[in-house]
Design brief:
Aminopeptidase, 5 helices, 26% helix, globular
């Protein structure tokens, strides 16, 4: 566990492979799963990335500072229902923490143009100077087998590149257990193992 009050800057913490601890703001951790990221400079979308964009063009999004986002008991109930249906280990108390009492500072609100009044997904992010971390995604389970779950982090990657940031972090990745295996399709993808960043081939 690493405490944010220690000597490293936030960007240095991410650079050394640490990830924010879900239930304690200001604390970071490492485990057997690797931190992963894409280097944004000179990155170009792959044919797979473009396919995802085309298949999800009926979805729209709005990026909102988290301080302007109203987190309600009804929303907590909805997100808790979603995560339980998806069999995610994400208690309601942890959902509330990451939205209301953490370092994360922006949220993407997604809508399906076929149901424009219904927010169907949320992407919780941490934008900081030269980096962005796609921290958590939440989506209506009806989209589980669609391309929307992959579009959520892909859009952050695209936006971060337009902002000329250096890195887009995607959380955990394990090439052996296939945890987060879809992330390997992001351009210039690399993961942190044995003290260094390794490109995925």
């Amino acid at each position: 566990m690493y405490n944010l009050t220690s000597n490293l800057s936030i960007e240095e913490i991410y650079e050394q492979g640490w990830l924010p601890q879900r239930n304690q703001a200001g604390y970071f951790y490492t485990d057997d799963n690797c931190s992963c990221r894409s280097r944004l400079q000179d990155s170009q979308l792959s044919s797979e990335n473009r396919r995802i964009l085309k298949k999800t063009d009926r979805f729209s999004y709005k990026l909102l500072p988290l301080k302007d986002f109203k987190y309600t008991p009804a929303l907590q109930k909805q997100l808790s229902t979603w995560t339980k249906t998806l069999n995610w280990n994400f208690p309601a108390s942890s959902i509330k923490t990451v939205f209301t009492n953490h370092i994360f500072n922006f949220v993407y609100l997604w809508t399906d143009n076929q149901q424009p009044d219904h927010i169907c997904a949320y992407t919780l992010c941490f934008f900081y100077e030269n980096i962005v971390h796609v921290a958590y995604v939440f989506y209506d389970p009806i989209y589980t087998h669609s391309d929307l779950p992959i579009r959520l982090p892909l859009q952050v990657f695209i936006d971060a590149q337009e902002k000329q940031l250096k890195y887009c972090y995607f959380g955990r990745f394990n090439p052996e257990t296939k945890l987060g295996f879809y992330k390997r399709n992001f351009p210039n993808f690399e993961y942190f193992v044995k003290g260094k960043w390794i490109s995925y081939n």
